[in-house]
Structure formats: C-alpha cells, structure tokens
Design a protein that fits this description.
By secondary structure, the chain is of the alpha+beta class. Strand 3 and strand 4 form a beta hairpin. The radius of gyration is 42 Å and the shape is flat. The longest helix has 43 residues. 32% of the residues lie in helices and 19% in strands.
Length: 746
Amino acid sequence: MEALKTCEPCARKDHKTSKTSKKNCGANCLCVYGLGEQIRNAANPVWGEAKGLLAVLGDNPNDNVRGDVPAGLRNLGATCYLGSLVQVLYHNAAFRDALYRTPTAQRSDAEETVVSALQKIFADLEVGERSSCDVNVLTDLLGLEVSVQQDPQEFGKLFMAKVEECVGDDTFVADVFRGQQTYETTCSECHNVTERAADFDELEVALRGQSSVGDCVRCHFNPESLEGDNQYHCERCGKKVDAERRLKIVKAPPVLQVQLLRYVYDRVTWEKKKLRDAIETTASIKIDENGASVDYDLCALVLHRGESAHGGHYVARCKDWRTSKWHQFDDDSVTAFSAPDEFLGDKKKKPPRSSESYMLAYVRRRWFEARQGLNTQPPPKKRRGARQPARQPAAQPAAPPESAKNHVENLDAEHAASKADWTEGKEGLEASVRRRREAYERLFGGSNAATPARTSSDGVVPEFAGDIALLETDALEAWVAGVKPKGAAKAGAADADGVVNMAEDSDDDATAVVNGGGVVWADPDAGEMPAETGALPWVKRLVRAPRLCEHNCLRPAELHHFKVLRQDVYDAVVADLFGDEPPSIDTPLNAHNGFCRQCAAADAGERANATAEYDRRRALLARLQASAASVSPNGTRVVAKQFLAELKKMDVPTTSHGVLSGSDVDCNAKIKCPHGLLKPRCNPKPLRVDEELWREVQARFPRSTQLVWDAPACVDCAGTQEQRKEQRQLRDGELDACPALGALLE
C-alpha cells in the first residue's frame, strides 16, 4: 500500500520500444502492460506465432500424409529395433508376397496372429495414406514393453520362429531365407572326413581384424584348426586328434542375411559390449555353393548408432526391389538416397568405413533377375536355325488380403476424421485469437486508459476516478497472452501465488488446494470449457476469501497479486475468461474492500517501527566496530566477532505476529559451548565490551547468551580437547615409529 502512494499507471509505449520489450511492473498494481502483448514468438499464441496455440491440438494430422517417399514406422518409446526389422522384411518383396498369400481367418472376431498382424502393418505401409504407420498391433499381440529396447538379432530369431509356427506347413520363410550347410572335419592322422549337415537362416560373422563385410564373409569360411584343448575325437582312430574343420554351403538361400558380431562379452567385466571396429559396407559378395561361385547384391542393412550394446538407436536402409531406389528409415523419418553410392561408394571411390553397420541382407543376383524379369547376362551367340529361349516373365506382386485392406481403410478413415477435426479446431482457435486481439485493442489500446487515474489520497489508501475493480494478475496475463501461467501447469497443485489447475471437478478439492487464494482454471480434457472457446484459458473460479483480512478487505500484502482496472474493462475481461458460464467469484474486490484502511495504517506503523529498528541496529554495529578497533578495550562482557558480519548483512526487518525478524539471534552462538559457557581457545578471539554496550546488544537481541571476559573456560570442553591432543600425540608417535603404516594411511 505504501508503494501505491507514489506509483503511476504505465503507458503501452513504456513497455514496447523499437528494440526492447519491458516486462510488466509486478509491484505496480496500476501497470497493466507488458503481460505478453509485446512478445512476438511461440510463447505468446495470441500476439506471436500461431503454433504456440495450435500445440494444444496435438500433432497436425495433415502433416502425416504420404509423399514421394515410403512410409515410416512410429517409435512407441524404444521400438526402433522392431521398426527396423519390419522395414527390412517389408522391402523384401518375396517375403511380402508370400506373407500376403498366406490365408488367415476372415471372421471379425477371429483371434489375431503374428501373420495377420504383420499383414496389417505391411498393407498399411503399402496402400495407407499416412506417412507414419504404427506397430502397436504387433507390440500388443506379443506383449512387448515398448520402453525396453531389445537386440534385433535375438528378437528377429524369436519373431521368425513365431511366424513359422503360425504358418504351419507353409515353408515360405524357409524358401526365402533358409540355406543348407555342412561341417567337414578331416582327421590329421587317418584323413577320414566326416560331415554334419545343418540349416541356417543367417551367417554370424566376426568383424575383428577385417576391413570390409566381404572380408568378414570370406574369413567365415576359412578352415578352422582343432587342436590342444579343442581336439577332435576321431571315431576311426578312437582318440582325440588334431583336425581341420571347414564350413561349406550346400544350398545358398535366395536372401542371405549377414549378422556382424558387434556385441561380444567382455571377459574382464563379464558384460556385453559393442565393438567399434569400422569396416566397409560391401555392395556385392560371392558365396561358394558346391564349388560354384554365387553372386549376391546388397538389398538392406540395419545400423546401430550409439556407444553401448544396451542402448542406442537402430536405423534401416532398404532398397525398393521394383524401382531400385534406396531409402533410410529412421523411425517415421524417411530419407531418399539419390544413389546408393552415398554409403556404398562407386568404381572410382571406395565405400566409407562405418562402425554402425550391424546386419546386412543380400539377394541372390540370378534369382533376383529371374524374379524381376530382368536379363543382365550377355546374349549367347546366335546359331543358324536355333530358337531363342523365351524371356522369363516377372513375378506378379501379391495384393494385401481383404482383412488387412479393411484394417487400413479404417485407419485412413480415422485419419481423415482427425484431419477434419484438427482443421476445424484450428479455424476455431484462429477465430478466438482474432476476437481476443480485437477486444484487447478496444479495451487497452485506445486513448482511454484501462486503469483509472488516481484522484487523491488521504495518505493511507488511494482514491480513483470512477468505478474500479481488482483482478488477479495471473488471470489478466492469461487473457492477454492466451496461455496459463507456468504455475498452473501441474494439476492439483498450487504455486506460490495460489494459482492452480484443477484436474477434478470437485469444488471441495478445489477449495482444499487454494487455501492461499488464487485462480482455479477449467480443465478442457474434463469438458469444463465450451468447445467454442478453443484452447484459450478459461477460468472456473476466482478464490479470494483466503486473501482477505479480518476487516473483510484485501490484505495490503496481497495487493501485488492484483491489477486495478476500470469497472467496464474488468467486466469485459472477466466475462471473456468465464465464457458462457456466469462468473464464480467468492468476493468481488472494488474501491470499498480492495484497500483496507485499518490494515494499511497498521502496516504503516509496522514499517516505521521496522525502519527505526534498522537504524538502531546500524548504530549498534558502528559502536561494536569502534570497540573492536580500540587499542585497549575494557569491559567485562564479550561479543563474538562473527556476529559483526552477521549484523552487517541484516536488512530492514519484517514483522510477523508482532515480532521483528532477526531479534531471536544469539550474538554469542559461535563462541559458546554446548554447556552454555565460553569455549576454550576461541578463534578469533571474542570482542570485549562494557556493560552499557552489552545492555544495548541485549535490547536489540534479547536471546544473546551472557559470557564474562575473565571467566574460566568450560572445564568439560577443555578436558575433551586435552584428551584429543593426547590422542593425536600418541598417534603421531606410532606413525613415526612405523613409516610404512604412515604411507599406508596416506
């Protein structure tokens, strides 16, 4: 109230210049500018960028529309490993076509299976209208914890086993990925050769010491010597002997998956770690199949970005078999490569080394050309009368099953509805913003000030021309800027100013959380505000009773939470804040109860008393400093020198329940022992004062402990110090007698 005697209303130009923007004068209840109207950024949706307000509508579904690149997969938390695996499988046209042709139950109430879920995701990636698809149909079915990342290799094995289990006798998984290999072991003594056949779905190759993926694959087929503790038991020799083991491919699969062993177990820490060896990504490799060389070309790869084997991020790069175009799939972000040379190199430039390559998929060249109807081999020489062989037609791609297409159509319909709702909400918000700007310019931007001029003052409370009303600063700022204050962001909690955001619609709960008074904001998610108000803040209640004094007027200390407005301006703002609902205000504040004359007079007396006390404390500090500077001080009382620094930092005291702050300080707290006596060997030595100065110290700080200058120190504390001294001397003697013990302790 004291500050209100000298403050004046601010003009709009005072808070907006050509170069700077000044914030609101918070302590001035007559300043109604600088509440956000001068800010032009996303933090102010009414006056700044519209996206700050549109953010409440969520992501714009109109941005989730497929363009020139394939669709991505949304990361549900830590599902990048699953998204990368699904993208690699989807871009394998042979696997996709076979999956589409796998029959599934057509009933609407049929139980979901891995195959039907994967069909829906593939169909969404192929014919859906959205640029970002979901894998939740698969995560829900498998019960995956979306916040926990998994190893794509380990998960891929289990997942493909689940697919095979689901399709039963259908072997399309084996037809695409499975090959056959034999382990040949040759005895070094009798030269007997034994063979063991096995199927494989991928090659797990070591990368340590290799320069490229091709080198890793070639090294995988190098002979292995079985000797020492790893000797081979030869059945013909009947004993363990040295032997040589060789791996041979009997039948190479159409699609060869190469898994780089980047994750190994550290024998020191016994934890899985990632190898950071950088190798070249080989565009083509050769595999020996029964003595014949088979060419394979890269069609997909998975990258792992990160230092740890237990975290990081997985990204897929896949080739479209129909267009031969490459794309990178980083969750729902899809990037097109102008040419695979960007990461594979070309004839003139070697491919760059990468420490991120994790899994690679290669397609058999002849098989791929035959499937796609291509013929890249040179034509044979024509013979007279010989008939040329007919060109093999390309395999016709399969269409998604009806159940999957119906699922995608439903998703597209929901997306179309969400686009319409979002657009309608955007138009409603824009209309609300226009109306809010027009109202602000009408109420605050004209020649008539929104805050009335002060006509006179009796020295206690001010008087204004015309009718006035007081409105919470937070409510006015929310109306001006179009956003609630930060203190109202957490539901069910009140900030220091009593501003709360109600998550429940219970009035009892609302009253409980605003014991200090404040603004109760409506919750749009609970349907507490009409749709036509858009996302602009809407007030549910204004709670003022806790801020009133015993005279049923606003306490002077609470005035800085309010702004003084003309009655007509107040009515227009409040009506807009409450929307179509009648204003719910427990106590209207106006010229009669907005300024309490009795409390203001009492506050003026308290301030005068506090100022006088501050002056007396400063005078006491000067006398204590003079006594400390005296060459030959006299007196029988002592004051701790540390108290002078504490007294110097004291500001004008405040009054709480009639008690001045700082009056409970003990000036000798630093030099008295737990027994209330003078500490032995005080450092620094206490200040010696006379009786008159000590009485003044006690008058200002009555809780100060009386200590006499020449009184003996506390015997108990002195004895304890002597014991500690003897213990230290005994310890030092033992350390001098045994230097090795001293070195160990150091």
